[in-house]
Input
Amino acid sequence: MTRPTPETLAHSARRARTTAEPALDADPAAARTAVAPAIPAVRPSAPAQVSGAGSLVRSLEALGVDVVFGIPGGAILPAYDPLYDSTVRHILVRHEQGAGHAATGYAQATGKVGVCIATSGPGATNLVTPIADAYMDSVAMVAITGQVARPSIGTDAFQEADIQGITLPITKHNFLVQTPEEIPRVLAEAFHLASTGRPGPVLVDIPKDVLQAPTTFAWPPTLDLPGYRPTLHPHGKQIREAARLMANARRPVLYVGGGVLKAGATDGLRRLAELTGIPVVTTLMALGAFPDSHRQHLGMPGMHGTVAAVYGLQKADLIVALGARFDDRVTGRLDSFAPDATVVHADIDPAEIGKNRHADVPIVGDARHVIDELIAAVSAERAAGHGTDLGDWWTQLDDLRKRYPLGYEEPADGTLSPQYVIKRLGEIAGPDAIFVAGVGQHQMWASQFISYEKPYTWLNSGGLGTMGYAVPAAMGAKVGKPDTVVWAVDGDGCFQMTNQELATCALEGIPVKIAVINNGNLGMVRQWQTLFYNERYSNTDLGTHKHRIPDFLKLAEALGCVGLRCENADDVDKTIAAAMEINDAPVVIDFVVGKDAMVWPMVAAGTSNDEIMFARGVRPAFDEDEI
Output
């Protein structure tokens, strides 16, 4: 017998996640806050004779699924026949990666489970990237794949791939269905696992002969998940100890991660912050969980975070981490991160606690319940006369905010500033719009220069950093929120990976808006080449500037979209306004910007947060004796 490695054990622990259990057919707000059965409360259906494919489609209908994203192929084709008559809307994408990211964007925007479908072999393997992306960012997604017929499994049959084995490390759980009778139960379990505990992707692989075989469909099924018992409520002793530390700390910080959004705990977070007066930092995955404009918000921590947020964590004597995972982009060099801080770490996933940073007070529980119980415990501490004046701490942090605000310099060569474009886009579109970013410089500028005042208005690929995420994720978000303006902020490199999904948007009536920040290069890679490789720009020039290949205006029109171009600051507002007026077709704006703009502040990879640079060659002046 093979002995499991520590890495295998850690992954197994993560796959046994826990959290609140939202009803799958609830509205988005309820889905994020309510504790309810995983199977919708629909009338039981009388047994009916159907094929395995019919059972699959009926199960999706019973689970309240309104849309799936996919592409048919040989092994999954039996499912597409009953889908033709179903109430479930199928959106035919142009690439399976687009289906997966669309399902993710739909899930992130709505709080429901996103669903994608692909055939066996290359269809299934094209889903690997979006599945890994959803796993890293804890997104509730169910991927359904066709498989070759059971007798052919293991024979290297045409279009065979062991997708269950391939995705084992990047799914919360996965299934290989063996009989048509088990399809309703497996689907119900997949949705339950995806949407409860720490959310995550679940794969359901179904052989073609199982889809074709006759079976009896009945609903609801009985779930068989022994040992899967999400821990919702934290231990009272740990909550009281955390409250005691919060009452006595002199330099506390609330370190807020995406788990607060997953739990629907944003209202409670604001109450806790205002009750305690403690500064708040929100990670890249948590933008919008606490209003950017709030007096207590220091901004985003980490590699490209604000100086105040980075130093606030670094010099804290108490860090209260809520649904955050101490990832390397936040901590910098781990052994130098927040050396004097006591750590309270609350997370729904016990595998995260202590994984990267020792937790002095570990709390396992749903973020909404943790925060609500912290509010009660902190209130009790205050009623007992316990509390610390944070005036000196705020004086120091406010001084940093004043001296080192987020900003940018206009390009010396007169080219259009990408930061200005993104800032104006946020101001014109407003706080109700959903912004979806790709990966790279444009992602960081969108996180810095758009003000996120409301939860679930910022979607991005945080953990995996997937180029090509933005366009299909924006498509999925717009399908889930058809009455909301959805902007994808993409780079010219990312955009060329999945822009074919704009054809899907045009044909399906999904009027997303795309702002391509076209600097002619793989921008973030070029920035690193500038700073760390002596300006040796090896293979980062994309040709979209000097050759205008592709011409994004013509490409947009070829894909059935309205194409616009903007090359100077005077035209930015009217170009954005023109795009905002178009609601019956997708819109692509080619913002031709300067190639030399960089993302600041910056903590270089592998260095300490103490070495943060405010701008090139400018390190913040910070008197450590003041802290």
Notes: The chain has 25 helices and 20 strands. The first strand starts at residue 45 and ends at 51. Residues 1-13, 15-37 have pLDDT under 50 and may be disordered.
